[in-house]
Amino acid sequence: MKPKALFLSTLTWMTLLTQTALAGGVSGGGGGGAIVAPLAAPSDIRWESTVAKRTLALLFNGMEYDYQIWKDVGKQSGEPDLRDPVFEKIFYGPRPILQVIREAKIELSFDGPCIAPDGSEVDGSAPGSSADSICISIKRISEKLRTDNFRSQTLALIAHEFSHLAGTDETEAETLQTRAIERLFDTSDSEVEQLIDGSISVIQLADAYAQQLLEESKSGTDLPKFCVFWAEVSRSLRELVDVRYWGPHGQLSLFDTTESSRVSATVRKAINLLNGVCVQKAIAPDSDAFKSELRETARMIGERKQYLEAYFDI
């Protein structure tokens, strides 16, 4: 069973429904005789566009994590769609898509279309008015999207355009757009924000405990207090290792594989210190070895906190 952080206990498993994205645009939905949801408000689409970067960071972290697992197990398991070479390009190409998400600007057009490089009018285009920007037409997509699909479709279109700045062609961008819709369909902004903000709160608490114990160790360590506090530090860090949403079409992940391995190393360091001092009693709390290990572990925790705070400051 996958570990589940305590601060995310209110979240439920996602049922991700597959929809098909149109090339360079969005699908409108509807059907014969069905009750069709009303059109989404332009203000709702604008909001999704402004918060898109944080959600897309989670989306592509999850895709990268899945893709790396697929590569590591000899390409014999994992999601079949990950066999597409587009994933190698966007994660390990000259400009990885997660870098694009951090650096590129999203330009919103409220009164007209975006203009593609060939001069045609489209829902979204890359580049936008500058080489490191994309354009999203709020006007055009608000005429197509409905209240039951605007979130996933808007985010997937932005992912499509960002991927062009990472080097994809139109077919490759469409593949990513479809996969984004699948993964994002049954998520919500509140769930994403809870995952991000809750995780940052956890690492901030662990860092505060570590810094307090580090300071107190300079004048002598209260062993019972240390053991209680350090157990909380270790527990909090363990919660961060696999903070993800899981569903039949994949996951949204707090970390990519590189940062996940750094968090895991920090957890091992913290647990080893806890066991050495409080369980096995192999490390004396007043020894130089203890102070050295405490300093190093506190440093690693602080680095993880700074990374997480900076990563989602987008």
Helix content: 55-70%
Describe the sheet with the most strands: 3 strands, mixed
Count the beta strands.
7
The number of helical segments is 11
* Strand neighbour order, sheet with most strands: 1-5-4
In terms of DSSP E residues, the strand content is 5-15%
The whole-number mean of residue pLDDT values reads 84
Could you characterize what this model shows?
The chain is mainly alpha-helical and 314 residues long. The chain folds into two domains: 15-26 and 36-184, no CATH class; 189-311, Four Helix Bundle (Hemerythrin (Met), subunit A) (Up-down Bundle). The protein has eleven helices and seven strands. The strands form three sheets. It has a three-stranded mixed β-sheet. A two-stranded antiparallel ribbon has the order 2-3. A two-stranded antiparallel ribbon has the order 6-7. α1 (42-50) packs across α6 (150-165). The radius of gyration is 23 Å and the shape is elongated. The chain starts with 41 loop residues before the first helix and ends with a helix. Mean pLDDT is 84; it is low at 1-23 and 27-31.
In short:
The chain is mainly α and 314 residues long.
Write the layout of secondary structure elements.
Blueprint: H1 42-50, H2 52-72, H3 86-92, H4 97-103, E1 105-109, E2 114-115, E3 121-122, E4 124-125, E5 133-137, H5 138-142, H6 150-165, H7 170-184, H8 189-216, H9 223-241, E6 244-247, E7 250-253, H10 257-279, H11 288-311
Parallel strand pairs: 1-5
Antiparallel strand pairs: 2-3, 4-5, 6-7
Helix pairs in contact: 1-6, 2-4, 6-7, 8-9, 8-11, 9-10, 10-11
